[in-house]
């Protein structure tokens, strides 16, 4: 197998990863659209989308294993392939969280919401952009972009704590809101986890480029906020 053939195979791998990433972004966007509009049909479609994303994960995994078996890649190439395997796992988990939110959306479809949805869509948009930038950073070997994705996680965390505090106060003022407020807390937590997975992807990109896997969170988080009641 020649290096040109390896480069072609790697390019095909990147194309499939971009397609998978686009599906993941679309899943996040549809999830929040379904939640905002209490659209049960769209929420149900997210489950079908999750199956397609799962199939991409399996396809890319086969591509990676074939490259390792047939090409006997050099250390740098092996790093790129192992990074791809890590990234698709995080993308698949993001899609799983979209399905989790869709399930809650269906449960709450007949309820009047206890508050307008403002910060939750913001979290979703940030998480979606983080996924997009992390995949771009991988494909383009962009170290600076990967680091920016890691920094973005702080903003999502801030929104998460804001939402939890607001919902906690709503419960204190009216205990009848408890069930729905807790559902929104879970939704916020799933979005926060999506951003964490996007950060994981970016950290693997850093590993791919530098050969070192650094946890950028310890550099970018300036304070050690309490994680309760939802600890990471």
From TrEMBL:
Read off the InterPro entries from this record.
Answer: PhoU, PhoU-like_sf, PhoU_dom
**Keyword tags:** Cytoplasm, Phosphate transport, Transport
According to its record, what are the GO cellular component terms? cytoplasm
Name its cellular compartments.
Cytoplasm
Q: Where is the PhoU domain?
A: 18-105, 120-205
- Gene3D superfamilies linked to this entry: Phosphate transport system protein phou homolog 2, domain 2
Picking any one GO biological process from the record gives: intracellular phosphate ion homeostasis
Nucleotide-binding as UniProt keyword? no
Report the protein's function.
Answer: Plays a role in the regulation of phosphate uptake.
Q: How does it assemble?
A: Homodimer.
Q: Which PANTHER family match?
A: PHOSPHATE-SPECIFIC TRANSPORT SYSTEM ACCESSORY PROTEIN PHOU
Q: What family name appears in the similarity comment?
A: Belongs to the PhoU family.
Protein name per its UniProtKB record: Phosphate-specific transport system accessory protein PhoU
């Amino acid at each position: 197998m020649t290096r040109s053939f390896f480069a072609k195979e790697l390019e095909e791998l990147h194309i499939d990863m971009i397609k998978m990433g686009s599906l993941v972004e679309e899943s996040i966007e549809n999830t929040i659209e379904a939640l905002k509009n209490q659209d049960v049909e769209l929420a149900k479609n997210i489950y079908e989308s999750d199956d397609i994303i799962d199939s991409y994960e399996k396809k890319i995994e086969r591509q990676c294993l074939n490259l390792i078996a047939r090409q006997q890649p050099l250390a740098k190439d092996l790093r790129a392939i192992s990074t791809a395997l890590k990234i698709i796992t995080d993308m698949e988990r993001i899609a799983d969280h979209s399905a989790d939110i869709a399930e809650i959306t269906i449960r709450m479809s007949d309820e009047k919401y206890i508050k307008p949805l403002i910060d939750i869509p913001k979290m979703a948009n940030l998480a979606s952009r983080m996924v997009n930038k992390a995949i771009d950073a991988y494909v383009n070997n962009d170290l600076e972009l990967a680091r920016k994705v890691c920094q973005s996680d702080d903003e999502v965390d801030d929104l998460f704590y804001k939402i939890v505090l607001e919902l906690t106060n709503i419960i204190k003022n009216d205990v009848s809101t408890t069930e729905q407020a807790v559902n929104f807390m879970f939704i916020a937590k799933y979005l926060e986890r999506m951003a964490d997975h996007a950060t994981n992807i970016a950290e693997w990109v850093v590993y791919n480029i530098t050969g070192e896997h650094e946890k950028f969170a310890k550099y970018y988080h300036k304070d050690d906020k309490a994680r309760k009641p939802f600890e990471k």
